[in-house]
Design brief:
This protein is about 40% helix and about 20% strand.
Length: about 240
Amino acid sequence: MALAKYSRALLKLSGEALRGDKTFGVDWNVVRYAARQVKAAHDLGVDIAMVVGGGNIWRGQEAEAKGMDRATADYAGMLATVINALTLQDALEKEGVVTRTQTAVNIQAVAEPYIRRRAIRHLEKGRVVIFAGGTGNPYMTTDTAAALRAIEIGAQILLMAKNKVDGVYDADPNKVAGAKRFVRLDYMEVINRRLEVVDSTALSLCMDNQLPIIVFDLFEEDGVARILKGEPLGTLIGSSQPTSV
């Protein structure tokens, strides 16, 4: 543990990150790459939990726009996160990392139900825990699930992995030349600037519980382990003043 700045962390992976350059589904090279990233962090002795999205398979808001009932569409999205979680679980175990998936919706044939104390016990035993099914409630994003679970398990940091975006910018860097990347941001600054990086419910949860967030590029080599060792990658959101590069 001398190598690590944090003893327990939660990593949020979007479904879009698992999609890689594909338009739909899973890029197996990305899944294996993510598993290696998590293993490198786990090898530091850090307790690692994960929340995974489902946007590479299903997006509830898009289904609602096509006329589907929003709550039903969101429940379908929860099932998509279970597919991604099981995919990651398999990849991690092929890397030699003992992994447990817990779901907020009850699917006992393939995963454990979410039980906070059991999740903490898994972490104490050196297992990676993947939380699937969001919060189990419609109208709630997996960002909110990540913030909630991180607080529940006593994580010291919430890592938000993005797809080839290395932090928080003052404008979309893919559309605006000269967009500035922030090194640090205060929670309220993110809200006031309307920076669409974490949904407002998740951000409020983190602010109320003083849980710092680091937004970084999943494809930064060994990025997860480097952050956990204290290297300043990405953008830190917490109780600090905004600073741009």
